[in-house]
Amino acid sequence: MQELSVRHLLGIKDITANDIQLIFETADNFKDVLNRPIKKVPSLRDITIANVFFENSTRTRLSFELAEKRLSADVINFSSSGSSVKKGETLLDTVNNILAMKVDMIVMRHSSPGAPHFLSRHIDANIVNAGDGTHEHPTQALLDSFSIREKLGDVAGKKVVIIGDILHSRVALSNIFALQKLGAEVMVCGPVTLLPKYIKELGVKVELDVRKALEWCDVANVLRIQLERQQMKYFPSLREYTLYYGIDKKMLDSLDKEIVLMHPGPINRGVELSSDAADSHHSIILNQVENGVAIRMAVLYLLASKQ
Prior knowledge:
Elements: H1 17-34, E1 48-53, H2 59-70, E2 74-79, H3 91-99, E3 105-110, H4 115-120, E4 126-132, H5 138-152, E5 159-163, H6 170-181, E6 185-189, E7 205-207, H7 210-216, E8 219-222, H8 238-245, H9 249-254, E9 260-262, H10 275-278, H11 285-304
Parallel strand pairs: 1-2, 1-3, 3-4, 5-6, 5-8, 6-7, 8-9
């Protein structure tokens, strides 16, 4: 059996194109499982997985939990809001206490960039990064590329634009790494204040005009404005942002080609996307959610074999 080249999934930066293809092929098999009447396999029956979330999450957390249960793993959920972290317990103490309960894998979301990397150097369990600050969100990038592959047949050679708040987005960084490893051309588009200074060093095109970006691309992955991560004002108002960077169905229909519309969620309807665009035939947003479970099943299954 083919194996991943890594023991942990800390970021797309740390894995190879072959790793990504292996995850996709494994996810194809699990997607078949998810469409059967009995959606469960006993693959991880003897594995205990802890979901350790120090930040709020709905889709990612539910998606991981469902993936774990579909694989028949034992699952425990930890949320920092009602935990001893509020009493001053350190990250390492928290995790070591969880591991003392004989946990094999940890799925972790944390507001500090590098937190999962720090843990991976101190504990024996496999770690999956479910988002670390503004750094990476590897499973989101994998499910996004997997969804493009499913819709367009291949990622290689496709033109993908990521639109919106690139500066505060861990999804953008992971997507750039994944798309480039799979042979896509990548562009970022947004207000200058929401583009990182180093962005061109990542080998991506930069476009400030959303209309030109849409005319260039095959796929538009639209990000929300991450107001909760912004310590200062990066643009005058949401209304002004929508005026210049909001996408509606009329704009999509006026292009001289069909493009694929994506969004990692949650959507701020009426800001970056109008409802008629989000719900249009261009959109594969709900396919992304469905594919998220298959991708996370694949990642957990492949990492478990590295125990």
